[in-house]
Amino acid sequence: MTPKVGWIGLGLIGKPMARRLANAGLAMTVWNRAASKAEELVPLGARPAATAREAAAASEVLFTCVSDPPALEAVLFGPEGALEGLGAGSVLVDCSTISPALARRIAAACAERGAEFLEAPITGGTWGAEKGELVFLIGGEAATLDRVRPVLAHLGKKLFHLGPHGAGQTVKLAMNLLYALEVQALAEALALVAGAGIGAEKLLDVLASSMGRAPVLDVKAPMMTSGNYAPSFPLRLMHKDLGLALDLANHLGVPLPATAAARETYSAVKGASAEDVDYAAVRRFWRQ
Amino acid sequence: MTPKVGWIGLGLIGKPMARRLANAGLAMTVWNRAASKAEELVPLGARPAATAREAAAASEVLFTCVSDPPALEAVLFGPEGALEGLGAGSVLVDCSTISPALARRIAAACAERGAEFLEAPITGGTWGAEKGELVFLIGGEAATLDRVRPVLAHLGKKLFHLGPHGAGQTVKLAMNLLYALEVQALAEALALVAGAGIGAEKLLDVLASSMGRAPVLDVKAPMMTSGNYAPSFPLRLMHKDLGLALDLANHLGVPLPATAAARETYSAVKGASAEDVDYAAVRRFWRQ
Amino acid sequence: MTPKVGWIGLGLIGKPMARRLANAGLAMTVWNRAASKAEELVPLGARPAATAREAAAASEVLFTCVSDPPALEAVLFGPEGALEGLGAGSVLVDCSTISPALARRIAAACAERGAEFLEAPITGGTWGAEKGELVFLIGGEAATLDRVRPVLAHLGKKLFHLGPHGAGQTVKLAMNLLYALEVQALAEALALVAGAGIGAEKLLDVLASSMGRAPVLDVKAPMMTSGNYAPSFPLRLMHKDLGLALDLANHLGVPLPATAAARETYSAVKGASAEDVDYAAVRRFWRQ
Amino acid sequence: MTPKVGWIGLGLIGKPMARRLANAGLAMTVWNRAASKAEELVPLGARPAATAREAAAASEVLFTCVSDPPALEAVLFGPEGALEGLGAGSVLVDCSTISPALARRIAAACAERGAEFLEAPITGGTWGAEKGELVFLIGGEAATLDRVRPVLAHLGKKLFHLGPHGAGQTVKLAMNLLYALEVQALAEALALVAGAGIGAEKLLDVLASSMGRAPVLDVKAPMMTSGNYAPSFPLRLMHKDLGLALDLANHLGVPLPATAAARETYSAVKGASAEDVDYAAVRRFWRQ
């Protein structure tokens, strides 16, 4: 009795997620702004939809997984958008990282149509998406979560139910500012030792046996020393999330001084980088 | 054939270190500005000296372990200071966190007297000092390190030889800014979720299973949620070390934007805290 | 041959502007979200409209002057919004401070209807609005500006034509970040001398005869020393403009480190202030 | 009955000051680390001293005017330093910008010798030094000030007596952070408009007729647009003074977020500039 699933957004994270569901044998309708990506899933049994609205109309559980708030607003609220297609009793699950305010607006729009909404931003990256080991940070009703839990089980190893609509996105933004500042911390520490003429490996040796070690730094440190910034989590998206975190904090009147300082260094690197780079490339702020 | 050891500085870290050496049976002369602390080591066989100079004169290997650069300058260069007592062929090992410039000045002053100098700032805290599991970040000659290695073996589990005089302090300052920014990252993330009305435990649950987890955060998070900031590493010392890191970076012309932003929050909390608190109390910047 | 004028937005700045035009004998239609404010202009000959759309339909030159981008989007693009009422050949002049991107979107929407658009954010405050001594920072076509110049002459002493659509808002945001940082500079300088136990008047005496004096500081300094922050330019609006400036800069990849740091202090004061205060109240960040 | 005057420090500011006193016919003894500069004053009647101590011994009022705290410590406390030469009843007037703590230390050292001390940091630059239009920010006893007032009258147009020892330096540091942030504000505003493709002159036109205009910006703006940063007030000295201001603020526990952010941009430009540049060159942070 698995539900009919719709999927909108087949990017770096969305595509491997959708592929897992298709491989698991779920009936799927898929739509992507660039239609060619939807075609890639046809051999796995997925049916391409002509519009986001059509994908929504064909689904009991509809996933959206796009890169930023404007993209999500377009696929939901734009012409031929998904919201118009959502049937009463269906569930919309959004895996994008957006503002809590937008999440609450979507929840209200779903409720008007008799549909339910779950915000479910994720961590774990492409690797986690492929292996079904994502972590979901969920905001919404527990009953809604229970309805989609069997589907999410194909995608993730952990589901954190963090509170009502907005709570999932808030914690997601808090986690991402924490990641960004940890990586900034490493970048500043490396800039200091480099400026003093000391090799990065000296610092990294000490870090590895210290209380400051963190898995994210184990992953990013080699990028910083090699200068190979092939994107795992693109800097432009981390920069966007820092903007969302600061927007939220400024709305709440909560000062975030180090996050604000870090955001400007990510901004400078974004402005100076022609190609897509991992957010570890914040190290380039010091021209390395 | 263990050397005669002198010890200057019997604070939170220095006393357990000195006690380990005394317990190991080494012949020790000790001096502390507040003499009562030196008396505590007498039952273990240590001999109290009347002045820093006298402690130095009685030692083949002299350790200093004090809280900040002015304190170290006083015990080394002040009246009846240790430097005047250092004999030719002796070794001075300083475990304080100071500027690389001061480390190089001490090295030069030792050389003038025919003595050798090793900078050996430590990480690992009181707990590591008591267990003999400190980590030493060493700058100086390898031959000097080899001479004192048998003594250091009683105190630490790891010795990182990081380069010439100044390199140990530089890496120490880089590590401490990294710690301070990691803890600041957690504080800002918690301030954001608190401002949004979400419990700290929600964020901490997610953090615990994320790539952002770090041992230092495992230790500091409970302090931040309980508001119990009994000092493990005092905020005033972390604030001092951030100042040393920024002094060094500004001397080198290396901008450290997030470190500079964080330092001001540590400063605000220092200014507002009557009692001695752990540096996790940076969370109080948001009046928690 | 003066044109029929419409006016939307009768707040602290908009009302005195509209009143000047009505007093000058121009035929006016006015609309405000809170209708009572429109009624106040009836004795001067203005005709209240029932909706923004109706005000637009009755006008050859339509002014909008509202507090922030969402308010402007609502009156222009919302139900019964002004855009639907704009006739071919009419001119929309917006005096709000918004993002350059929104200005360009409005320009495009006007062009679709055969109307022209001029962005014309202002400086000079309530006082300048009452005296007709505002400064307009204009973006758009020179020909459009020439068409409305006779109307603007009643309102302002200076018109700066800064370039195409977006340029007026960009310069406005740059000016506002400059004001905010100048006031922040004074607030930090006063915090330092206060922390050292020196009276504010000592610093202000020196400032008054220095190269650092600025008219904006002459106005804000007495607020800071008296603690009377009756809003001339509300902190919440300056905070909003700093957000727009940072959004623009981050979009462009231009780091603004001091602006970002200042924005967080404005945010903290906004979060801690129950009442509406002038942006000079950033001094309260230090609990004065 | 003018006193015998000594002068130590003949740099960009000190030399024109000393020359004015010599031209006024005062009996002068001069000393400079680089002796050739002292020789230049001989034709005006000044007598070169062999050491700082000798200059002090020959003077009733001794001026010091050097570039930074270490330089001042060297000429006062170093071998053959001025302090050893100061006679009982003489007055030491220091025009350098140093920390309030060092000012108080010097005052205490003078008192031990029966001499008086006045801190008298200056603003007004080379131009003011040549014209005798400097502004003195004075800390110390009013009676001491009265004793040297006739000499200072040759040098400055305004004397601000700001309080006891330390107060003059504190206000000086507060003024300099204010200057630095005003110039930073202009640099960030220009970076934003430049990033948006708008000419600097557009912003400067608006600034010139705004409440944000300031004499210091009138002087620095042409430097920023031309890229000609011939030093009037060298960036390295402004960077040093920002460091002193932050040291003081951090000692007091007063956070200065924007000053801290600005200091890092000055630091980056200092690190990247081979030649001596004016502090307006902070504009180069954005590679202009």
Describe the structure.
Four copies of one chain form a homotetramer. Chain A is built from 13 helices and nine strands. Chain A is elongated and about 65 Å long. Chain A is an alpha/beta fold and 288 residues long. The model of chain A has no long low-confidence stretch (mean pLDDT 96). The interface between A and B is large, with 65 and 65 residues.
Task: Give the secondary structure arrangement, pairings included.
4 copies of one chain form a homotetramer.
Chain A: E1 5-8, H1 14-23, E2 28-31, H2 35-39, E3 47-48, H3 52-57, E4 61-64, H4 69-77, H5 82-85, E5 91-94, H6 100-112, E6 116-119, E7 122-123, H7 125-131, E8 134-139, H8 142-152, E9 156-163, H9 167-195, H10 200-208, H11 215-226, H12 235-252, H13 257-272
Parallel strand pairs in A: 1-2, 1-4, 2-3, 4-5, 5-6, 8-9
Antiparallel strand pairs in A: 7-8
Helix pairs in contact in A: 1-7, 9-11, 9-12, 12-13
Distance between the termini of chain A: 55 Å
Q: What is the strand arrangement across the widest sheet of chain A?
A: 3-2-1-4-5-6
CATH class membership of the largest domain in chain A: Alpha Beta
Return Rg of chain A in Å. Answer: 20 Å
Please report which band the strand proportion of chain A falls in: under 5%, 5-15%, 15-25%, 25-35%, 35-45% or over 45%. Answer: 5-15%
Helix count of chain A?
13
Structural class of chain A: alpha/beta
**Mean pLDDT, all residues of chain A:** 96
What string, H for helix and E for strand, traces the elements of chain A in order? EHEHEHEHHEHEEHEHEHHHHH
Oligomeric description of these chains: homotetramer
Biggest interface and its residues per chain? A-B, 65 and 65 residues
